[in-house]
Design goal:
Blueprint: H1 11-15, E1 30-38, E2 44-56, E3 60-64, E4 70-74, E5 78-83, E6 105-109, E7 120-123, H2 134-137, E8 141-142, H3 150-156, H4 163-174, H5 177-190, E9 195-199, H6 208-217
Parallel strand pairs: 6-9, 7-8, 7-9
Antiparallel strand pairs: 1-2, 1-5, 2-3, 3-4
Length: 220
């Protein structure tokens, strides 16, 4: 769920080599942190966690994932960390074209049990989720046009080290006519009632649904 286990000599740590540069000035910003966490079978493993930094002091960093989980990371276990720049505001649209959003935008896995608080449920994956019956999804819309292109999705592979560049490229795709219109429909929906963006991935923090939710929340 937004964390990727690895090992100090494995694929994960080779992709992401940064010093921990997060401080109290970065609270409220999106960030990615690599840390040493206790492994389920004993010992330690390397994991990446991405979310909104809620606190940073001399002893720990606290980051809230898109799922709502709050992760506390002791400073002596943090290996690397950086802020993630926000995507361009409202790609392809002027402020005059954007409805003012007054309701909540949520991000959830499409496999999770639907909730009365979901409001409008929209799948934002290009490919139908594996093993899920269409009648069980209880969708209001399948917005394939707003999903990343196959080429971008294949390049990205939910690699935390590529997330900032993925956001930039994805925002550029959303400025194109088809995706732009699909994003405008989501804005209009979010202006009137709660909206839940659904995806199949377990890594909600690294998903296109989280990028879309951030863009829609900028319209508040």
């Amino acid at each position: 769920m937004g964390e990727e286990p690895g090992s100090p000599s494995g694929r994960g740590s080779q992709r992401f080599r940064l010093e921990v540069r997060l401080s109290a000035r970065d609270v409220g910003e999106r960030a990615v942190i690599r840390w040493r966490r206790p492994a389920p079978g004993g010992g330690e493993e390397i994991a990446d966690v991405l979310g909104v930094l809620e606190a940073a002091d001399g002893s720990s960093l606290r980051i809230r994932k898109a799922s709502g989980e709050l992760v506390t990371i002791p400073r002596n276990r943090a290996l690397a960390g950086k802020r993630i720049p926000p995507p361009p505001r409202n790609p392809g649209a002027s402020r005059k074209e954007v409805p003012v959003m007054t309701t909540e935008v949520r991000v959830r896995r499409v496999y999770d049990e639907p909730s009365p608080e979901d409001g409008t449920r929209v799948l934002v994956d290009r490919v139908w989720p594996r093993g899920l019956r269409k009648d069980a999804a209880r969708l209001d819309e399948w917005a394939k046009d707003v999903a990343p292109s196959t080429g971008l999705r294949t390049w990205y592979e939910h690699d935390p080290a590529k997330f900032a560049e993925f956001r930039r490229r994805y925002a550029a795709e959303l400025a194109e006519p088809g995706p732009h219109d699909a994003l405008a429909r989501l804005r209009a929906e979010a202006a009137s009632r709660p909206l839940t963006l659904l995806t199949a991935t377990k890594e909600l923090d690294l998903s296109q649904a989280t990028v879309l939710a951030d863009l829609l929340r900028q319209d508040r």
